[in-house]
């Protein structure tokens, strides 16, 4: 392992007014690292994801791989934003193409007096209803009943690079009181190949309170989940649950003491969804 190339930068992504956010590790030049090296670094860092950037011959094109402490994942939104901001701070703002295991992700970084924000354009989204037996097993693991769900939002498995179970609840108190069986939900998610369970409450038009269970990443909950935000936007568009074009605000991480803000833009003429957030360097 080349330690001169494997320096890990630490960023909080999707911060809210400079606070909170979701920590991600970023290695800006991972060309000398093997998969074993990457996994070992991700475990040592201990965040839900670390992004490993592999520069190409084109200055605006990169291969990016994402590792949780447990395994490689195809795509991670908050680590993508962190990597884009890190590259912008080093090389200047602008658009960059990230080739990921989930496909091409374009990220545009913009700098102003408040810092750097990045907008990722997700892989194409899709969604499908969840099977009743799988939904029942999920609710048993979470400790919810079907009547806790908001009938306006059908339970679905939504995709934007990874699969996420999407569950809307009728009351904020239900979301606030989340206390699930980690082992039970983890086994179910491994079987179904879900990355997170995206649970939300609709406060008003365009504003949602969100929590994401993330056992596959080795953590109980994720404070900000860009990939799930993109999948959620695609879900709302596919089911006609939002007027297009739409801009959504997702408030996540509040119940963890790490408030995060994700901006989701949904258009009619593309299968992708744009997710915007800020990121700030964390002290060592």
From TrEMBL:
Superkingdom field: Bacteria
Assigned keywords, A-Z: Isomerase
GO cellular component: cytoplasm
GO MF, any single term: isomerase activity
Catalytic residues, chain numbering: 49
InterPro entries, alphabetized: Phenazine_PhzF-like
Family as reported in the entry's similarity comment: Belongs to the PhzF family.
Name of this chain's protein: Phenazine biosynthesis protein PhzF family
Organism in which the protein naturally occurs: Nocardioides psychrotolerans
């Amino acid at each position: 392992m080349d330690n001169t190339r494997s320096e890990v930068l630490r960023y909080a992504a999707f911060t809210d007014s400079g606070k909170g956010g979701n920590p991600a590790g970023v290695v800006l030049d991972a060309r000398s690292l093997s998969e074993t090296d990457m996994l070992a670094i991700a475990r040592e860092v201990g965040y839900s994801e670390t992004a490993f950037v592999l520069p190409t011959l084109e200055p605006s094109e990169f291969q990016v791989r994402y590792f949780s402490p447990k395994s490689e994942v195809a795509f991670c939104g908050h680590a993508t934003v962190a990597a884009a901001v890190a590259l912008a701070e080093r090389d200047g703002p602008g658009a960059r193409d990230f080739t990921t295991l989930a496909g091409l992700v374009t990220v545009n970084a913009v700098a102003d007096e408040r810092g750097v924000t990045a907008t990722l354009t997700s892989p194409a989204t899709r969604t499908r209803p969840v099977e009743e037996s799988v939904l029942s097993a999920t609710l048993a693991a979470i400790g919810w009943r079907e009547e806790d769900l908001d009938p306006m939002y059908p339970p679905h498995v939504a995709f934007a690079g990874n699969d996420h179970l999407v569950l809307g609840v009728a009351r904020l108190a239900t979301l606030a009181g989340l206390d699930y069986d980690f082992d039970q939900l983890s086994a179910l998610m491994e079987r179904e190949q879900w990355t997170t369970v995206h649970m939300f409450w609709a406060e008003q038009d365009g504003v949602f309170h969100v929590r994401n269970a993330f056992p596959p990443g080795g953590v109980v909950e994720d404070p900000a989940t860009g990939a799930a935000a993109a999948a959620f936007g695609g879900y709302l568009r596919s089911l006609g649950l939002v007027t297009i074009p739409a801009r959504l605000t997702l408030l996540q991480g509040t119940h963890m003491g790490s408030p995060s803000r994700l901006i989701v833009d949904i258009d009619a003429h593309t299968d992708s969804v744009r997710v915007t957030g800020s990121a700030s360097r964390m002290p060592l």
